[in-house]
Design brief:
By secondary structure, the chain is mainly α. The protein contains five helices and no strands. The chain has helices at 3-27, 37-54, 60-84, 93-120, 135-155. Helix 1 (3-27) runs antiparallel to helix 2 (37-54), helix 2 runs antiparallel to helix 3 (60-84) and helix 3 packs antiparallel against helix 4. The termini are far apart. 22% of the residues are buried.
Length: 157
């Protein structure tokens, strides 16, 4: 991967993080609830810490892992929040409202994955030293963790 490609992907990563945070802060201002500090801290960790970690090949693995975990937490918490706002069984209006935010988070993850793949493309041919490098591992967590919240919120209200 060239430096220009890496710079473009890093810019996209920052833009997605800041854009998601601005969208979130417009929908849920901090003054409405002190709990809204959690997404602000997560967004700035994604914007600053993950981006700084992706600047170096040595710390790119940690950046990839942290980026993925922040995305999993974000999707899970937004799914829970969307379910808590639904009016009853079969009404998923709260979930559809959160779908755009979840899509931004997933795009953030995919940009991070592209950065990671760019750093380690030659090294990863046929070898996966850590399980979190496998795309299936992330997919399972993106789907199953929010699914647990859907089931629990649907049946144990």
């Amino acid at each position: 991967m060239t430096r220009a490609q890496r710079a473009t992907l890093l810019s996209a990563l920052v833009a997605l993080s800041v854009g998601g945070w601005l969208l979130h802060s417009r929908i849920h201002p901090l003054k409405t609830s002190p709990v809204m500090v959690v997404p602000i801290v997560a967004a700035w960790a994604d914007t600053v810490v993950v981006t700084l970690l992706f600047l170096s090949r040595r710390s790119a693995r940690l950046a990839y892992l942290l980026n993925g975990l922040l995305v999993i937490y974000g999707i899970t918490i937004m799914t829970q929040f969307g379910l808590a706002r639904t009016s009853g069984m079969g009404s998923f209006s709260g979930l559809t409202a959160m779908a755009g935010d979840c899509a931004i988070l997933f795009a953030d993850f995919m940009v991070g994955k592209a950065l990671f793949d760019g750093y380690f493309a030659e090294e990863r041919v046929g070898v996966r030293p850590w399980i979190f490098l496998a795309p299936g591992w992330w997919l399972v967590h993106f789907v199953l963790i929010p699914a647990v919240y859907v089931v629990a919120n649907t049946f144990w209200r």
